[in-house]
Amino acid sequence: MTYRSTKTNNLYFDGGCVEVDSHTEAVLGQSFKITCISCKKRSETVAEAFTEWFFKEKETEEMVKILRYDYENKLEVTDPRFEGLVVWNGTKKVSDLQDVSIFILNVTYEHAGEYVCTVNRTLNFGDVFLHNVLVNKTIHIEVVPTANRDTASIVSEIMMYVLIVVLTIWLVAEMVYCYKKIAAATEAAAQENASEYLAITSESKENCTGVQAVE
Asked: What is the pLDDT of residues 28-55, one digit of tens each?
């Protein structure tokens, strides 16, 4: 048996399967998804898997099994604190479970603590041999009375307003620059026209003077 322990702050992906972090802040009285994904390193390998979830409530020491899920028997909840409150949100149509995420309905403060999802996968290499892999992932969940905005959304909003201000200043500067350029070009054209007019007028006067002298 090969044992591989992975925390949720790691990222691993292979083909169509991507391992992502789970959200860790649940809001009291609302539904909350705990994400747990364990991808196979080689997607072409035939495999079967089942998952078991364990939970240690905040400020306690006992880790208790709360549920099991496999393709044949589906979801089995074994802890009274989660009866009627857990909904399966993982892989459903194949026996090789890679996404073993769950939903907790109507979150209470009792649901805060440490969750461990285990994925027990048996790889089938045809007539050669079977290989078993056990993956554990630990997720720490906090329960808060109201939703808090994460840092990323706050920073994104600030950057958006900064970008709007910068673009507005740039646009005004471009408009002033274009206005000055057009005004200068207009003034130069007017001066050129005036010079040409004066030149034509002087030439006309000289011609008239010449005609009078001949007469």
From this structure: 999 999 999 999 877 778 899 999 999 9
